[in-house]
Specification:
- By secondary structure, the chain is α+β, with helices and mostly antiparallel strands.
- It has two domains: 4-176, no CATH class; 187-345, Reverse transcriptase/Diguanylate cyclase domain (Alpha-Beta Plaits).
- It is 61% helix and 10% strand.
- It has 14 helices and eight strands.
- The strands form two sheets. The protein has a six-stranded mixed β-sheet with strand order 2-3-1-6-7-8, sandwiched between helices. The chain has a two-stranded antiparallel ribbon with strand order 4-5.
- The radius of gyration is 27 Å and the shape is elongated.
Length: 347
């Protein structure tokens, strides 16, 4: 087992020396380039290290295009916004550490906190952990601002930059979980909520309920009116479903013309009422097409719904499978109806 202090010192050394080494090699100091260089210095990716060693052995400057190629091949598959935020924070911590290195002991506490943050950034961090590290960096910087004046101008600029990076990260995380067309949660957000089903099922009085909703014959809308009108219809259906759901319950676009509703802590009779309310609400809609597309045109659609309840000790995937089979039965039996795990309720 490696010595913890040795590993810690090595991590801090990597963060402290990354920027000077990049400058020496005339590599532009951008978040993505810093990410590649940090990965190389940490020796955690052998394939990347081998390619970088070949580039360094040529005795010629590494071009920005070559750095971009390394980033594309080895790092881009990660959560890009989160990774760039992490590396930007690492870059700022590195800059701060180099600036206070020769200042007297007045900033020793600040330096120690930066060292600890740098060590934490060395490994894989979740979005929540990254947010906490940014909090610590901002608090430490603000504390240093209160304690002294020598670095005030430089530290104030860096504190503002960190706040900006954090704001961008928060926005990117929100956008990454929203469906661009309807404004509902997207499938990623739904999968995250689904993964938490066993936990909140154990806490709530009633078993969670899943509804899968599919717009009937939606292809005809696209074929007859065009995809822009089809998108308009999907937005109208999304608004109607959202209007039927309250509180902690979740509405997501599951894919294409399919939506998902996750009802938490709702009695079975309440789940059935919501499902029927959604079905009837969609059927009642006369969706007016914007005049840009078709003047005075109204479109009516219906939806088929499949519902299932979460069962103790089952996987989240199992409830999706049962709701999907119930949805299939709704379509098979004539559409515009709700089917509950083998029981059909006609409109």
């Amino acid at each position: 087992m490696p010595n913890t202090n040795t590993q810690y010192d090595r991590t801090v050394d990597i963060v402290r020396n990354a920027i000077p080494r990049m400058s020496e090699l005339k590599i532009p100091i951008t978040p993505s380039n810093y990410a590649v260089w940090y990965e190389y210095l940490s020796d955690s990716n052998q394939a990347l290290r081998q390619e970088m060693d070949v580039l360094l052995s040529r005795g010629q400057p590494i071009t920005n295009g070559e750095m971009k190629g390394l980033y594309e091949r080895f790092l881009k598959e990660r959560n890009e916004e989160q990774w760039i935020a992490k590396t930007a924070l690492s870059q700022m911590v590195s800059t701060l550490m180099s600036q206070i290195e020769n200042v007297d002991g007045h900033y020793s506490g600040f330096s120690s906190e930066l060292n600890d943050i740098a060590s934490s950034l060395a490994g894989d961090v979740s979005a929540k952990e990254l947010d906490e590290l940014m909090d610590r960096a901002v608090r430490a910087t603000n504390t240093a601002l209160e304690q002294g004046k020598e670095l005030k101008q430089r530290l104030s600029s860096l504190a503002t930059e960190m706040a900006d990076v954090r704001g961008k990260l928060e926005r990117s995380q929100k956008e990454a979980r929203a469906d661009a067309l309807t404004g509902l949660h997207n499938r990623l957000a739904f999968q995250e909520e689904l993964a938490a089903l066993p936990r909140f099922a154990a806490q709530d009085a009633h078993a969670p309920c899943l509804l899968l909703i599919d717009v009937d014959f939606f292809k005809r809308v696209n074929d007859n009116y065009g995809h822009p009108v089809g998108d308009h219809v999907l937005r109208a259906v999304a608004r109607e479903i959202k209007a039927c759901v309250r509180g902690r319950d979740m509405v997501a676009r599951f894919g294409g013309e399919e939506f998902a509703v996750l009802l938490r802590d709702t009695p079975r009779s309440g789940c059935m009422a919501v499902a029927e309310h959604v079905r009837a609400g969609i059927e009642r809609q006369m969706i007016k097409v914007p005049e840009d597309f078709l003047a005075d045109e109204l479109i009516a659609v219906t939806a088929s719904i499949g519902g299932a309840w979460f069962r103790e000790e089952e996987t989240p995937e199992a409830i999706v499978d049962r709701a999907d089979r119930a949805l299939y039965l709704s379509k098979q039996e004539g559409r515009n109806r709700v089917t509950w795990e083998g029981k059909s309720t006609e409109s």
